[in-house]
Amino acid sequence: MKSLNHRTKVVILTAVMFVLLVAVYACGILISEEAVTGSFLNAKRPPCLEHPFGTDALGRDLFLRTLKGLSVSITVGLVASLISAVIAVLVGIAAANGSKWVDALINWIIDLVMSVPHTILIILISFALGRGLKGLLMGIAATHWCSLARLIRGEVLQLRSQQYVAVSRKLGKSSGWILTNHLLPHLVPQFFVGLILMFPHAILHEASISFLGFGLPPEQPAIGIILSESMRYLSTGMWWIAVLPGLTLVLIVLLIDKFGDHLRMILDPYSAQE
Amino acid sequence: MALEAKNIYFRYDRKQPWILEDCSVRVEKGERLAIFAPSGYGKTTLAMLLAGYLEPAKGQILLDEKPLPKRGICPVQLIYQHPEKAINPRWRLKRVLEESGQLREDVLDAFGIERAWLDRFPRELSGGELQRFCVARALMSGAEYIICDEISTMMDVITQAQIWNVVLKEAGKRNMGIIAVTHNKHLAERIATRTIDLSI
């Protein structure tokens, strides 16, 4: 058998990661509500074959609850980072194409948003919008676009100074035509990679805000909720409620981060042919 | 009917000396002018000024006694020295010709562009092959003057001759004005009806 080259390996690895993420997400969706309602007879069991992650104080199976929580996290991460990335592209293009004062204003807003710690800003926005999924999504979306917007602004500025853009203008093409035909195709990789690298941030913020009690309601099976519940039982030696769900969250985040890295390698013309 | 630069001054930065000082050039329609100078004498700058890519600090660029149009198809088209920079690296070459409405059989034949090249990306062709696309693109309908900024420097002698033959034929047919910026004195003598030397 011919040995696989680097690119094929990366492509296969990326596909496997993608399938794994989709599987986690699908499992969480498919698990019924009944499966995560527990009985007090099973309460506080340490990890065993029947309950791989053990059970919590109410007798709910933690493995299923963690999976369901992860699917909520992935939804939040995906939607929030998608909104963020779209905002980033629009703002970045506006800053690079607009007049001087538009650019200055947008840069000032970016500096402003970046100067406030994310967590505090998300808590404020989420709280103001009545907590829950909506508040959390808006909070995360409104705070994460800045660095990508800056990146895209720089990219557009650099593209606009290219000879082929100047030539296109002399060939009688309008700014809109140049934007859609010359500039936007160059931004597609930036957009997707930015989106995926934002994803773990969004998930971790979701967990931390829910942990602090400003995010999802307590009956929803989210990782942050599980972790904050576990605080009450840690001192009685029930380590598994905190450690195992927490560890899975870290694993998922690492998986997505690696996925983003690999995707960048595939899309980036400078490393695509390695 | 002429393209002319009237007493233009230009420098890239206020702190720097003038690159072009009180420079005047005039090209009639149908005339072929060669601009000749050693490196660093502002040949490319003059080419970019004449095509409207740069604005002179003082003086005017006039086409038929009027300033160059800011929008729409520019009647003065510039062909750059480095074709690989003047073509979008993410476009198949078909789109480069489509962009100026030059994707026609007769254009392809005239410039010796092979059909197989049209579906390739710019990095898959050589500089000389790419330059044919740039020249074909610039000779769009609506162009009355073309400025060639050392367009044949990277080509072998046979390709140079081919490209220049096409340019001269097309320009002659449409009575276009040509400004050729070049290092090569023999080329200048061969193609131009008049030569000016910026270093004098």
UniProtKB/TrEMBL annotation, chain A:
<feature type="transmembrane region" description="Helical">
    <location>
        <begin position="183"/>
        <end position="204"/>
    </location>
</feature>
<dbReference type="InterPro" id="IPR035906">
    <property type="entry name" value="MetI-like_sf"/>
</dbReference>
<dbReference type="GO" id="GO:0005886">
    <property type="term" value="C:plasma membrane"/>
</dbReference>
<feature type="transmembrane region" description="Helical">
    <location>
        <begin position="70"/>
        <end position="96"/>
    </location>
</feature>
<keyword id="KW-1003">Cell membrane</keyword>
<feature type="transmembrane region" description="Helical">
    <location>
        <begin position="237"/>
        <end position="256"/>
    </location>
</feature>
<keyword id="KW-0812">Transmembrane</keyword>
<dbReference type="InterPro" id="IPR000515">
    <property type="entry name" value="MetI-like"/>
</dbReference>
<protein>
    <submittedName>
        <fullName>Peptide/nickel transport system permease protein</fullName>
    </submittedName>
</protein>
<dbReference type="GO" id="GO:0055085">
    <property type="term" value="P:transmembrane transport"/>
</dbReference>
<keyword id="KW-0813">Transport</keyword>
<feature type="transmembrane region" description="Helical">
    <location>
        <begin position="108"/>
        <end position="129"/>
    </location>
</feature>
<keyword id="KW-1133">Transmembrane helix</keyword>
<feature type="domain" description="ABC transmembrane type-1">
    <location>
        <begin position="70"/>
        <end position="260"/>
    </location>
</feature>
<keyword id="KW-0472">Membrane</keyword>
<feature type="transmembrane region" description="Helical">
    <location>
        <begin position="12"/>
        <end position="31"/>
    </location>
</feature>
<comment type="similarity">
    <text>Belongs to the binding-protein-dependent transport system permease family.</text>
</comment>
<dbReference type="InterPro" id="IPR050366">
    <property type="entry name" value="BP-dependent_transpt_permease"/>
</dbReference>
<dbReference type="Pfam" id="PF00528">
    <property type="entry name" value="BPD_transp_1"/>
</dbReference>
From TrEMBL, chain B:
<dbReference type="GO" id="GO:0055085">
    <property type="term" value="P:transmembrane transport"/>
</dbReference>
<dbReference type="Pfam" id="PF00005">
    <property type="entry name" value="ABC_tran"/>
</dbReference>
<dbReference type="InterPro" id="IPR050319">
    <property type="entry name" value="ABC_transp_ATP-bind"/>
</dbReference>
<dbReference type="GO" id="GO:0016887">
    <property type="term" value="F:ATP hydrolysis activity"/>
</dbReference>
<feature type="domain" description="ABC transporter">
    <location>
        <begin position="3"/>
        <end position="200"/>
    </location>
</feature>
<dbReference type="InterPro" id="IPR003593">
    <property type="entry name" value="AAA+_ATPase"/>
</dbReference>
<keyword id="KW-0813">Transport</keyword>
<dbReference type="InterPro" id="IPR027417">
    <property type="entry name" value="P-loop_NTPase"/>
</dbReference>
<comment type="similarity">
    <text>Belongs to the ABC transporter superfamily.</text>
</comment>
<dbReference type="GO" id="GO:0005524">
    <property type="term" value="F:ATP binding"/>
</dbReference>
<dbReference type="InterPro" id="IPR017871">
    <property type="entry name" value="ABC_transporter-like_CS"/>
</dbReference>
<protein>
    <submittedName>
        <fullName>Peptide/nickel transport system ATP-binding protein</fullName>
    </submittedName>
</protein>
<keyword id="KW-0547">Nucleotide-binding</keyword>
<keyword id="KW-0067">ATP-binding</keyword>
<dbReference type="InterPro" id="IPR003439">
    <property type="entry name" value="ABC_transporter-like_ATP-bd"/>
</dbReference>
